[in-house]
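Students often ask why inverse folding is considered easier than folding. One informal answer: many sequences map to the same fold, so there is more than one right answer. In these notes we will look at a single instance of the problem. The structure comes first.
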């Protein structure tokens, strides 16, 4: 009995030798399996490593720690920018405490200490 091999298939089929190549033209020699069991392209993986894609995405390695470590964002100070006051937009039909009229509790809504309750 002769086993038939598909011409094109998924990466897993190519890895298991039930297909000759992927639709993109990758053969078994172009593929490898990572430590999680995913099948990757050798060429694409080496290009990502060469381009330092992890470093560009904000990851680095730290001595004494296993795996990648997120780089802390450095806060940049803006020079010459003054604080601008935000304009408050007036909303139609709201009460003074900002609670929704139909969502009021039995006590009469949310009230703050500096706002006397209207009766």
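Output (designed amino acids):
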């Amino acid at each position: 009995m002769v086993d038939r091999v598909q011409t094109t298939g998924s990466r897993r089929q190519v890895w298991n030798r039930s297909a000759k190549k992927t639709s993109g033209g990758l053969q078994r020699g172009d593929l490898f399996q990572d430590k999680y069991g995913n099948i990757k392209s050798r060429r694409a993986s080496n290009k990502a490593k060469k381009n330092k894609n992890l470093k560009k995405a904000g990851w680095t390695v730290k001595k004494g720690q296993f795996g990648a470590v997120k780089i802390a964002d450095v806060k940049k100070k803006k020079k010459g920018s003054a604080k601008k006051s935000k304009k408050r937009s007036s909303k139609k039909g709201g009460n003074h405490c900002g609670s929704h009229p139909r969502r009021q509790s039995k006590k009469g809504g949310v009230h703050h200490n500096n706002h006397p309750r209207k009766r």
